[in-house]
Description:
The complex is a heterodimer of chains A (159) and B (420). With 159 residues, chain A is of the alpha/beta class. Chain A has helices spanning 14-17, 28-32, 43-46, 67-74, 87-95, 106-109, 141-148, 152-158, and strands at residues 4-6, 52-55, 79-82, 99-102, 116-119, 124-127, 132-135. Chain A is globular, with a radius of gyration of 15 Å. Chain B has two domains: 11-265, Aconitase, domain 3; 275-419, Aconitase, domain 3 (2-Layer Sandwich). In chain B, 32% of the residues lie in helices and 18% in strands. A seven-stranded mixed sheet of chain B has the order 13-12-18-17-14-15-16, sandwiched between helices. The radius of gyration of chain B is 20 Å and the shape is globular. The chains are: A alpha/beta (159), B alpha/beta (420).
Amino acid sequence: MSKAHVYKRDHINTDEIIPARYLNTDNEQELARHCLEDLDAQFVKKVRPGDFIVGGDDFGCGSSREHAVWSIRGAKVAAVIAGSFARIFYRNAINCGFLVVELPGAAERIADGDELEIDAKNGKLVDRTRGKTLDFTPLPDFALRIIEDGGLLAHITKK
Amino acid sequence: MGMTITEKILAGHSGRQSVRPGQLINARLDVIMCHDVTTPAAITMLREKGLDRVFDREKIVVTPDHFQPAKDVASAELHQRLDTWCRQHGIRYYYPLGRAGVCHALLPEQGHIRPGEVIVGGDSHTCTYGAFGAFSTGVGSTDLAAALATGETWFRVPESMKFVLHGRLPHGVYSKDVILAVIGRIGTDGARYRAMEFVGPALHEMSMEARMTITNMVIEAGGKNGIMAVDEVTRAYLEEHLKDRREYTVYESDADAGYAAVEEFDCSALEPMAALPHLPSNGKPIGAVAGLKMDQCYIGSCTNGRIEDLRIAASILKGRKAAIRTIVVPATPTVWKQAMDEGLFEIFYQAGCVISAPTCGACLGGFMGILAAGEKCVSTTNRNFVGRMGSPKSEVYLASPATAAASAIEGKLADPRKYL
């Protein structure tokens, strides 16, 4: 089952997600090895494919480096769920075909290790561990279509 | 209801008479800024999708600046990919080593920024150019790739917030202190998704360089863009620097334009500020934090690495010695030469500072001044996040060039006013 890695922190920024000392590459697998390194050095050892990162408000603030999304995607994380997102990170995620879920109070409502399932289209997040369903506002249709197509460039070339 | 400058520019670039906040539009782009960290990936994406083209080779400005000169093999390869692509597509405005500079200082200086235009760049501090009455914002590599190929990008029209800068800046207080006060009041997400429009008498007295320090840091409050109306100071700067002499479009916000919030600041009451770790919103008046021991001083970056910044720092360091490692990074080759010609290098040398080539360098923890665990750096840069300039156990204190220089002399956070 896919588990939540919860960080009860606002303003988790791009420097913590992927520090600039690794920005001399855009290789996703290399970036994945350092995902969240300056926030939680143990994260890459704990994370399993399909897991979720859960954070507070303003997740991804700071730099425009898409490397932040690539490192998370490269670590095989299925989605980031946060109270709110910084603008550029949010846009980068959609452009990369990576799911982001805005859920007010996410870091308080979900506990570390909870098993989650997400229905992106209908805005339902099922917490299997606690046996409850949390509703969120789904992404707008055009954003969901970009994600379904595998990112902005795939979406453009398909059109 | 009337429109703000931001709304007027976006309407004009999407073939509309008017736009409203929240509306999704497709905007025509006038300038695209590219550098060595985010553009090589964009180039690769375009190749992989069979879109290896540029919409206009004269509207793309490229400078490798983050790891300039290349700091290792991997960054040399980023530069190589960028260089090959620029030559292949005949990019007209390509500034490689020797002409390369910190992008947000270089583009205005080289006359690429014009009022009324829409600019995107693969860097979050692209918001700097809003000081010239342009709409300008940072994007990631995928948006950049699509923009390079098509010359367009989509935006959600942002709500605007107005910041009224009343009064007059006291001696020893600078535009850096103003923006740290603004971010301190509204927080690092206080303007998330919004346009931050600056007006007021204190603004009109500022040079373009000082104004750019303010728009540079709107992203640290989550802003989508920062914007300032064109005035005589803007026109004089453009007269001296503009590459393209075509007439530019000057927009002004209507008296009945809508603002999500209006924040008023009495600049006469401001003091020199230092933003404590680990958020740019942790600004404190210098009196509250003076005396805190530092290990390094860094004077440079797209926020405060222009000639005016180096002059301020030099005026304080003149005839004095830095008590800690002090690194001076002129932001562009022109700034470097001006600083040398004006004798600032001599002052920095005598004070025991080192002068680097133009680069983003240690501002983002790249190289040229990385911090060890436990070290503290007073820095004229824009971010003090965990690990920003090196070890995740190091600390960054953001301040003006004056406060940084005074702190270098004392080896601890210091009030610059006693040295002026």
